[in-house]
Amino acid sequence: MSAIVKVEVHQLPHGYDLLLPAYQTADAAGLDLLAAVPQSAPLILLPGRYEMVPTGLTIALPPGYEAQVRPRSGLAAKHGITVLNSPGTIDADYRGEINVILINHGQAAFSIRRGERIAQMVIAPVTRAELVPVDVLSATARGSGGFGSTGR
After folding, report:
1. Deepest in the core among 24, 35, 60, 132, taking most CB within 10 A?
2. Per-residue pLDDT tens over the stretch 115-135
């Protein structure tokens, strides 16, 4: 059973008539974010280009939580559309509009229409680290190997 976290949400004037983000299935981890572009002016995302897409939403996360903005797998698989800074992080003290930076890695122009599901938002607890300076790190079998050092 998942924990329920109350998140205050405010719809800005350009997003007033859009549905609030929602989970599409009972076990979904992400709430779908919708594009708050003008009905009369869909955003055309050309191949290789990126745009900041407004959602018309601001949120107030409780302390100790973050929201991650992630791609929708269907947009990525079918059209090559993904979130450029994935995952985007929304901190608990941010009160500005949630925007989604979408990039078109596909071969064709892609039209983003008002109310279209463009990304998903996952609410997650935050763990903060205390960095402890040391002279030498503990040894491991892997050591400093990275970027394919354990296989293809």
Report:
1. 35
2. 999 999 999 999 999 999 999
